[in-house]
Design goal:
Elements (H helix, E strand, L loop, with lengths): L1 E4 L10 E5 L6 H12 L4 E2 L15 E4 L6 E5 L4 E5 L4 H8 L4 E2 L11 H6 L7 H4 L6 E7 L6 E4 L4 H7 L8 E8 L1 E2 L4 E9 L2 H11 L5 E6 L11 E8 L13 E2 L11 H14 L5 E6 H5 L5 E2 L10 E9 L3 H15 L6 E6 L14 E9 L4 H16 L2 E2 L9 H7 L3 H7 L7 H6 L2
Parallel strand pairs: 2-4, 3-4, 15-17
Antiparallel strand pairs: 1-2, 5-6, 6-10, 7-11, 8-9, 8-10, 12-14, 12-16, 13-14, 13-19, 18-20, 18-21, 19-20
Helix pairs in contact: 9-10
The structure holds flavin-adenine dinucleotide.
């Protein structure tokens, strides 16, 4: 059985045929079949990567989502073993009632365990907990024509390191064991304050990050002059008391793909202005459930479709601490001068906890992420200017979000790529890897 799949940004708009596998015992045979018929393939989680890193060169992927069973849970110690197609949301639905939470979560709960490992995802607590890979104890890895392997810091350590952030290229993860985070409540106590400019963001981050589990800022990337870098700063912690309840609020759905993007300069400016103004000028404490805090965009299913048939690209970079403020000011200047930009750009200080993964994205510095409706000259006009600033600052782009970076920028920013290439399973290849390496 197969189904049509795309990446989240729907750019490049390359349809993938999914070959699903329902039982771990059949995965090796499934991989064999797809390789026999199509030459190469790639594991596919839930398609929440924006660009081309989840797209196979052959356009035929092994779809992992139906391997979605929990295998073992140790609720005393918060250790969970599950098949790799389980989503982070499904993990929360069984972990929260037992007093546990994900140790690290990205901005959507619709990603699979395998996808979270393969991109070594990070979240609002990177400054305290590092990446998802820092909490992976071991996993099963299936490589073509090989015995199934178990990888951990102690067993097959080279493949363990290469697979965390390994973009699905070293083999198929069929199960994984992770350590969870203890919580007393599923609610989040947060403090919110708006800020008027970039310097204020860095001052708030220096003051508050180390006092809180979670920290993130939304910024108005279209603001100019004195307002450049204005935004809303949010820190939060798991509440110390309250219910341990799984959020089950109703989700809205974008019913169809409009022919043209609903995002334009007018709607962007209007939304960014309103968003900034509705947030308090003074530090304000509030309590909310975990979903609106971590996953505000998950409320609208398939929100990616509002960008129309051409889709969109996300630009996410991280800039080292020493030059972060300067370079991010320059990036925002270039973006606002171009008049293009996103509803909510995200600014986040990353910490210095090293990931076990070879090609992990975060580094000690500040990450900026923004969405742009796809246009013919986006890469040439704006992204090449932004890339030059990132390169000059010694920063790098995030492969999970990328559809444009040059091979030389990638190889310069991720020197361990050669180790990954040496361990790549030759039957696995992505459009991303082909673009930057092969
Ligand atoms: C709204 C939104 C917010 C996001 N916020 C963040 C964020 O805050 N931080 C962050 O880091 N990321 C973020 N992301 C990106 C997302 O977390 C990653 O792209 C994630 O890896 C997607 O997981 P997936 O299961 O959808 O995998 P896919 O996108 O389908 O695949 C991702 C990669 O994993 C590989 N893969 C998938 N399953 C397996 C497997 N079983 N074995 C081996 N390899 C596999 C694929 O080959 C591919 O290379 C966000 C995405 C969205 C849409």
């Amino acid at each position: 059985m197969s189904s049509a799949l795309y990446s989240w940004g729907r750019y490049p708009h390359v349809q993938q045929t999914g070959h699903a596998c329902h039982w771990r015992s059949q995965l090796a045979a499934r991989l064999d079949d797809v390789v026999l018929e199509h030459g190469t393939t790639l594991p596919f989680g839930n398609g929440r990567s924006y660009g081309d890193s989840c797209l196979a060169v052959s356009n035929h992927v092994v779809q992992m989502r139906s391997l979605d069973r929990f295998i073992k849970a140790d609720w005393e110690n918060g250790v969970l073993l599950a098949e790799s197609g389980v989503t982070l949301g499904e993990i929360l639905s069984i972990a929260i009632p037992q007093g546990w939470f994900l140790p690290v979560t990205p901005g959507t709960q619709f990603v699979t365990l395998g996808g979270a490992i393969a991109n070594d995802v990070h979240g609002k607590n990177h400054h305290l907990r590092g990446t998802f890979g820092n909490h992976v104890l071991r996993f099963g890895l299936l490589r073509h024509n090989q015995e199934a392997l178990v990888c951990s810091l102690g067993e097959n350590p080279a493949l363990f390191a290469a697979t965390i952030g390994g973009l699905g290229l070293t083999g198929i993860i069929d199960w994984a064991e992770i350590r969870l985070l203890p919580i007393r409540s599923s609610q989040i106590d947060s403090t919110v304050v708006r800020f008027g400019g970039l310097s204020e963001f860095f001052a708030l981050s220096a003051e508050l990050d180390h006092q809180h589990e979670y920290s993130v800022a939304w910024i108005d990337c279209l603001a100019k002059g004195n307002n450049t870098g204005r935004g809303v700063f949010i820190v939060g912690d798991h509440a110390q008391y309250g219910q341990q309840e799984v959020d089950q609020r109703l989700k809205l759905r974008v019913p169809l793909t409009p022919p043209l993007s609903l995002i334009n300069n007018l709607s962007l400016r209007f939304f960014n202005e309103i968003y900034w103004r509705v947030h308090p000028a003074k530090r304000t404490r509030q309590r909310s459930s975990y979903e609106p805090f971590f996953y505000p965009l998950d409320r609208i299913l398939h929100w990616n479709l509002i960008y129309g048939r051409k889709g969109f690209q996300q630009y996410q970079c991280v800039i080292p601490d020493a030059v972060a403020e300067l370079a991010i000011r320059e990036l925002l200047g270039a973006i606002s001068a171009s008049g293009q930009g996103s509803f909510l750009a995200v600014l986040k200080r990353c910490g210095d906890i090293a990931s076990p993964g070879l090609l992990s994205f975060p580094l000690p510095g500040t990450s900026l992420a923004l969405d742009f409706p796809q246009k013919a000259n986006l890469g040439r006009a704006l992204f090449s200017r932004l890339d030059a600033i990132v390169r000059e600052a010694g920063g790098r782009l995030y492969p999970a979000k990328d559809a444009h970076m040059t091979g030389s920028d990638f190889r310069q920013a991720y020197p361990a790529w050669e180790q990954l290439e040496a361990l790549r399973d030759p039957v696995l290849n992505s459009l991303f890897w082909k673009r930057v390496i092969v």
